[in-house]
Structure formats: C-alpha cells, structure tokens
Amino acid sequence: xxxxxxxxxxxxxxxxxxxxxxxxxxxxxxxxxxxxxxxxxxxxxxxxxxxxxxxxxxxxxxx
Length: 63
Description:
Elements: H1 2-18, H2 34-61
C-alpha cells in the first residue's frame, strides 16, 4: 500500500510540474532548495519520531 500511495503521489506531482504548478517555499515543508527541504524533513523525522516510535511500539505490543 505504501508503494502504491508513493507511486500515485509521484504521478500527481509530475502532472502538476508539467502543468507549470510550483509550490512556493512558504508552503509547508518546502524550502528554497532541495537541500534545505531535506534538512527540514530530516529534523521532522528525527524530532517527531522520538514520541511516535514509543507510541507505535505500545500499540503493537498491546495487540
């Protein structure tokens, strides 16, 4: 399901790019360049997962 979702999202992104749609750097996690965007996503994953990982583990162990 993750692969299908990723592929569908990629197709939508390509269609938008071909249509000339641009996401401004002020929108969400998008930054001025790819490196800044990836650094921001890295921070999100690192900081955000500190609380998410134990929550996921708790759900899995309580099945």
